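Run log, item B.
One chain of 340 residues. Sequence copied directly from the ordering sheet:
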Amino acid sequence: MSALSRRESSILNSIVKAYLESGEPVASQSLARIRGVELSAASIRNVMADLAEQGYLAQPHASAGRIPTPAAIQTYVKTLAVQVVASELAKMRRDLERAQTVEDRMERSSRILTEWTHNAAIAAAIPAAERVLREVQFVVLPERRLLMVVVTAGGEVLNQVVDLAEALGETELVSIRNYVNRSFAGWTLSSARRELERRLRVESLTYDSVLRRLMELHLGGLLDVALDQPEVSLDGASNLLAIDLHLTREAMRDLFRTLEEKKRLLDLLDRYLEKATEGPEVRVGLDEIHPSMGGLAVVGIGVDRPDGTRTRVAVLGPHRMDYARAISAVSHMHQALRSM
């Protein structure tokens, strides 16, 4: 998308603000009334047509006004300024300091964000050591069981036993081992796990026998073994029931099943909040995580603690969430966690 002119940015921000408040398509005449005598409806209509061509506006019906696309909303949120209020920060810090464990701190963090925003919230503490894969090995056990051994670059030996639907032959095991070691030696386990999952999705239609058996091992936790598991807390998922996400009943069930998956939540945080930043990150449309999440947006931030633990906090809500409120809540949480 090309850079917007000053006039285009101003009109686009007015459209997004009006849409977030009403949820209705915005017409040029109503926007002209909002903006006063600055521009005529005809001039605004011409700018809106240009914005639509650039991918910032969509028209749900031929006779309707325009609605902002995810790209337009993300452009708008960059203009929002948030001030951290000392009294609110102190209150939040006192609540977090009562936590006796990392698990408790994550639960309190997600609960606080939910109370502030009335949306869903995620908080996760991810262990410091990001293990790098050296190689995998397999040991056949009795009764169709398989010991999957992961050796890290640091010399740790991690293992997981999986029950197989059918026994694996030696040739298949060698092929799977060679595929994984050739593809992912030197990768971090989390990166290798994500890439392996992507490849299996893309290549599943080839019906390759080795890939089919590798999928079975992947689901059994092949690259998911770890000495320290992340602590993940989700709060306020029921708030999403009050939001019109235009989902069928089955799609809504898919959404809640997705939110119940710890791996899926970690994938969301890894994908959009991979690095600690000074300000909140905003992503509108999460269909890359799961199709049922296309109508959601995330506002989040990462904190890297002195002990190396990566803490990630985020607010999940609809495209029409109160971004100023969500960014404020996440910013306060960021400051509170950094000071602990």
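Observations after the first pass:
- The mean pLDDT is 87.
- The first helix runs from residue 6 to 22.
Flagged for discussion on Thursday.
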